[in-house]
Design a protein that fits this description.
Order of helices and strands: HHEEHHH
Number of strands: 2
Structural class: mainly alpha
Largest sheet: 2 strands, antiparallel
Radius of gyration: 21 Å
Oligomer: single chain
Strand content: under 5%
Strand order of the largest sheet: 1-2
Length: 142
């Protein structure tokens, strides 16, 4: 149980750091985070129409890209936390059923091995292989 909880704690800490890391790019681009989403100057007020200057249209398009990046970091943090929580909960429920196992061979060769594999599985899910460069940077920063 300790291995599963250790992996869960590590992953939740990483997810929290990933979420906190969203403040940096949000601040760099003049965004804020409200209700778990990035918000900018144009949020809720899309500049449309023939009289909108090109520089406003460009700023809007640029802001949408920044919002998408920050929202991606938030979504990744939530995905990591949710995935680790689900895996750990399932394994802890399973281990609760084996609390009375007195056969040390079974405990070491089956239960411990399975729990250690799950621990690595939970930790491996944190590594952002093939993900957005901003997520990779957040992972290394965390």
């Amino acid at each position: 149980m300790a291995m599963v909880l250790d992996a869960l704690a590590h992953t939740m800490g990483y997810a929290q750091r990933t979420f906190f890391h969203t403040a940096e790019p949000a601040r760099e681009h003049g965004l804020s985070i409200e209700d778990g989403r990035a918000v900018g100057a144009y949020t809720g007020a899309t500049p449309v129409g023939p009289n909108v200057p090109q520089n406003v249209r460009d700023a809007y398009t640029k802001e949408l890209g920044h919002i998408s990046g920050v929202d991606g970091l938030i979504a990744e943090a939530l995905r990591e936390a949710s995935q680790a929580d689900a895996k750990a909960a399932a394994e802890l429920d399973k281990l609760a059923q084996t609390i009375n196992v007195s056969d040390t061979s079974q405990a070491h060769n089956e239960l411990l091995v399975e729990a250690s594999h799950l621990e690595f599985d939970i930790l491996r899910a944190d590594i952002p292989v093939g993900k957005d460069p901003q997520l990779v940077r957040a992972w290394w920063t965390a």
